[in-house]
Amino acid sequence: MNVILFGPPGAGKGTQARLLKEGYHLALISTGDLLRDEIKRGTELGLEVKETIESGRYPSDEIVLQVFESHLKKVKDQGVILDGVPRTLNQAKKIDEIFGHLGICLDAVIQLAVDDEELIKRLSSRVICKTCQASYTPEVPPRVEGVCDKCSGQEFIRRADDEPEAIRVRLDVYNKQTKPLIDYYSKTQRLKVVDGMKPIEEVNKQIVSLLGESQVLTIKSGCLYSAQDI
Ligand SMILES: [Zn+2]
Asked: Domains in the chain and their CATH numbers?
């Protein structure tokens, strides 16, 4: 099973992706996490994208796809969930090409729909662990208050791109870039819209049921390699 999850920042993609990863034993590819990891490790690429990411802008398609493809090759046999990519029409087309080369079937594209006002509310209340970057919200707090689940760190900070100014920039960019993506995937019957305003468990249930339908579609009508062929 190979799934693309998309939706605006703060729509709950990270949380839903983790639930799917556990439920279906898929590899999660979050380009945001991969890039933040490059920054943290101080790699050449990390240094190149640091300022861009922290001001709420997105790195170039070339950089995003480079990080994406090299990680995809390592985990592709497991089935993958993509979180944070594609974000542009160009990326979507390139990913179709990459999937085609590697023989990866795209089963479903899940769009999480959430109102802008709700997104701003959610993002401005999100914090991350200063040590390991794990993120927490009032809806998904650490198991023990004030202590990070992953590393037991006790210092939490706001991500640079979750500052109100940066959030507005991110939502603006997202809204402008999403429309062509939605049109692109709509042509394929693989696009499923999920109401992301619902509680986490309910959103997960909706997604699982849609993925079941998508798998049936793949079995019935074969592998979808490229939306461009339709
Ligand atoms: Zn931590």
From this structure: 3-114+162-223 (3.40.50.300)
